[in-house]
Amino acid sequence: MAKHSMETKKMMVDETFSRVKDADILIVTNYNGLSAHDMNVLRKELREVSAEYLVVKDSIAKRAIGKGQNSGIAEMIEGETGIAIYKKGDPTHISKVLVRFAKDHNVLKIHGGIIKGDLISKDDVKQLAALPSREVLLAKLANVLNAPIQGLAGALNAIICKLAYALNAVKDKKGQEKPAAIVEAKPEEKVEEKKEEPNVESKEGPKKEDEKPQTENKEGQNGG
Q: What is the DSSP letter of 96?
């Protein structure tokens, strides 16, 4: 009977170890006093962030976690133990779920945990829960990095617009000057031609009339 019990415990330790060994994040809690309904709600909320909640005896948990994780976590395991397991991802997600749930259900106690082999306290878990998510931080970082590029693009666009306006202004000015020169040149040429023709005729006409009488007068005098 004792041998069978030892084998059963060993199997439970191995099963627990296989579930926690690849986890990046483990958070140890005590769920004493939590109802079955509330337990199901907690598990559902953790599944929504791709985490799971493992209920295990404290003696089994200590042996399983102590095999591959920081041995300091064994001191956090006491009583009715529930371990929140997060394989890979943002530690703020699982921390937010646990801290929010513990606030609404004060029987759930957060003891601390491990993040990629580093031991964290319950206060560290609360601080993680208060941080913006990884997605929000990346978005803010992208905005900060993108701001100088946007400013440069805006400045270049303004310069291009000013250059385009200047070129259009020069083009419009030249377009207005050419028709004005043509309109002014044609009337001047026509007026000069009209003025020259009557002047020539008026000068030549009187000279011929004056010459004829003078010739006739000379012939009359010679004949007399």
A: H
Number of domains making up the chain: 1
Q: What average pLDDT does the segment 136-148 reach? A: 59
Q: Quote the pLDDT of residue 215.
A: 47
In a domain, 83, yes or no: yes
Percent of the chain with pLDDT over 90: 29
Among the residue ranges 42-56, 164-178, 182-196, the one predicted with the least confidence is 182-196
Token pair for residue 63?
């042996």
Distance CA 200, CA 128 (A): 109
Query: Which three-class secondary structure state does DSSP give residue 135?
Result: helix
Average pLDDT, the chain: 75
Rounded Cα distance, 29 and 84, in Å:
8
Indicate which CATH number applies to the domain containing 105.
3.30.70.1730
Rounded-to-integer distance, Cα 28 and Cα 58, Å? 10
- Angle, alpha carbons 51-10-56 (nearest 5°): 35
Conformational region of residue 99, where left means phi above 0, alpha means psi within -120 to 50, and beta covers everything else:
alpha
The per-residue b/e assignment along 181-199, b for 16 or more CB within 10 angstroms, e otherwise, is eeeeeeeeeeeeeeeeeee
Residue range of the domain that includes 117:
2-131
